[in-house]
Amino acid sequence: MRLELLLTALAALLATTWNPPAPAPVSSPPPSPPPHMATAWPVGTHPAVLRAWDPPATGYGAGHRGVDLAAPPGSPVRAVAPGRVSFAGQVAGRGVISVELDGTGDPPLRTTYEPVRPALKKGAKVTAGQQVGTLASPTGHCPASCLHWGLRRAEVYLDPLTLLPPWLLNRGPSRLLPIKGAAER
Question: Which intervals of the chain are annotated as region Disordered (predicted)?
Fold first, then answer.
């Protein structure tokens, strides 16, 4: 009886005094917009975006915290901007490499690439376009082989496509249209 009374009192005490921390927001706006600093896609020249960035409403909510780019296994994976490797290893059975981007503030922007076989170790300096790994075999994340490319500033997830300048996002060829009323020569 005493034990039950003690447990009931303890449960009441915990219920009134313990306040678990709220999950970190993942879709709040970044402190400043990321610059269009990438000079190339991380795989290929204009890969198809198989799944776009879809930030969750809450820290642990459903969503997609990056973009999935179509690419065959064995494709070179390149850093999109200069920086330093902040992580290279396994996460949940998948190879991951993260690069903190130079000159992006405090805390810095960090890009992530998975599933990859990292070619560099933590601390390695990288230049834009330098190969950081090789795309590994599909892990079930995509229906076909893909690179999951992410972008974060501290705990806030951002759309990695914002790193690409508008001209690099243009997928179609340039077309010249005739000027109405212009004389033909």
Answer: 19-38
